[in-house]
Amino acid sequence: MSGETRDAILRPTALERLARVADVQPALLVTDFGADDPAQRAALRDAEALFTGWGCPPLDASALSAMPRLRTVVHAAGSVKHHITQDVWDRGITVSTAATANALPVAEYTVAAILFANKNVLESARVYRESRSRVNLLTAFPAIGNYRRTVGIVGASRIGRRVAELLRPFDLRLLAHDPYLDEEGARALGVERTDLDTLARESDVVTIHAPELPQTRNLFDAGRLALMRDGATLVNTARGSLVDTDALVKELVTGRLNAVLDHTEPEVLPADSPLYDLPNVLLTPHIAGSQGGELHRLADAAVDELERYAHGLPFAHAVDPTTLHQQA
């Protein structure tokens, strides 16, 4: 992992747990598998497990050739697509990820965004700030609230499923679209399975949790955005590429739609983007995922997995190479 990642996630208690589970060298940080470092080469030659995080270089054939004893990779972060290659699977190396742990804060952010969106928090705050006097809510916001509103969940991913679970106590109608979600799975989640266009048309809030794949690029293009109800809110905590940014900006500048965006394309918008200043947009700098103290959950989850491995138990969060293409 990168040095920045190590410093952020591996607090002393996590290192102590690691030391109880494995023969680990806490001072050894690998950022380049091909580095000309005798101590690193010796450690990799003997390594049975890799404890990885953000910034891990690709585990390709060249890197793996230096690790003849490697049997497992435990990733203290979400997606493994950045460093797990086909060579890992070809060698029969098992892989675990803390993606489930990383999904929790994203789902929490999303639920907060949904509840605030239906409560017209951005608009009511703006009106109050500008008037600096009592606001007649019955006339200014006659339709606000979460009672029996419709929320559309795009993607029954780890995050999408957690969002559905967290929304169960509320009086909401939940729609969901995912090509891999069947009727039985939808009933178990407490959602109505529907096609994407119907979801866009009928939802007061649309929240995106689909993976970034070639077929999901611009999933919400000008045509699909046009289907959304006047006053509806689009929440994107997935990837910016799933939404046509130019088409979304055109809708937002008219005031017809609202948006809560934690991801955009490009990831950092140009300084002159209207999204920074539009009153109907809440733009955040990729904070929905694990940050600050939440990062410690990732390390704890990864150490839990390493403990299972050490005791000969199967991973609780193993990565399945046959379904990896469906995931973020």
Automatic annotation (TrEMBL):
Residues 41-319 form the D-isomer specific 2-hydroxyacid dehydrogenase catalytic domain. InterPro entries: D-2-hydroxyacid_DH (IPR050857), D-isomer_2_OHA_DH_cat_dom (IPR006139), D-isomer_DH_NAD-bd (IPR006140), NAD(P)-bd_dom_sf (IPR036291). It holds the Pfam family 2-Hacid_dh. Keywords: NAD, Oxidoreductase. CDD domains: 2-Hacid_dh_8. Residues 112-288 form the D-isomer specific 2-hydroxyacid dehydrogenase NAD-binding domain. Belongs to the D-isomer specific 2-hydroxyacid dehydrogenase family. This is Hydroxyacid dehydrogenase.
